[in-house]
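Narrative of activities, Objective 1.

The group set out to show that a structural description can be obtained from nothing but a protein's sequence at a throughput compatible with the screening campaign. Below is one input-output pair from the validation batch, recorded exactly as produced.
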Amino acid sequence: VYKRQVLFTCFCLYVLCIDLLKGGKLENIDYSILVVLISFFFVSKDGHEESCYILSFIIVSLIICLYFFTYGQSGTVEVSEDGRTAWKDSNYLGNVCGMGIVLAYNVLVNNLYTNKKFKYLCLLTVIVGVIMIVLNASRGAFLSMTVAIMIITLFARIKTSSKFGIVIAVSLSAVTMYSLGLFEVLEERVMSDDGTGNARTIIWAAKLDAYSQLSLLEKVFGSGYRRQGYRRGFELAIPGGFGFHCDYIAWLVDYGIVGLLFFISLLIYPLKLVWHRPSQRPIVLSLILFLATCCSTLEPLTAGRLAYWYFYMLIVLFARWSSQQTN
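Output recorded for this entry:
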């Protein structure tokens, strides 16, 4: 598998060069992509350990859920000195949990489980995980999970009656959860939005303004990790000025047009591997859309969050192994 990761290798070299030349040091993203690149060397070609990789994400998600239910309520909301309440960063937590939920749902709907214990573990993860996502009240995580589950259900190779059964079960579950008040915090966050996505559009405008002030060379090849984007955010004194809240804008500002094209190519690459495998294409598409949606409101990949990079690695491996199978 590792011999075919030419695109990812070139991407790593590009990011490393930009950070070293512009910043003079390695950043979190550099260490993360290097770890993932090295990890490819320890993967089998036939994919016999595929279930183990999927299982690891599912177990991590389940552990996160149990931790959240045990300790999460004590740290869900923080209050500033002026009395303003704000949720701690539940977005990254929710999306990491969402990875296991989406994988578990994929296993259940597409009958990828190897035994009944694995099946029941996936079912438990989906049920507990969805409740956690709702209580966690991360709109981004809820959206990412919903988009992926819709794609999985719509294109799953199961009977139409089974799809209707899933829709009915999900609808009844949603009504029950709503009647129990589980959606209250999430609903409050949605209703309290002022039309800027909690200042995200303001932040994006500031980052794009920073990009417009770069030289032509920096617009094409970037200015290095957070060099201009952070600075401009602080200058404008906007909420969240030290972050991008969008991976796509982060790649554009930090690594230029070339970096953004590299990033988009990475997202498309797994789908290209299974393009001629209709049975596997929807599964890979759902996983890509989950990650792509995460990146639209957060910056997990440019921030070098290793869990997200390993999830991308899993998508590539699943696509690669699926492309070697017959329909």
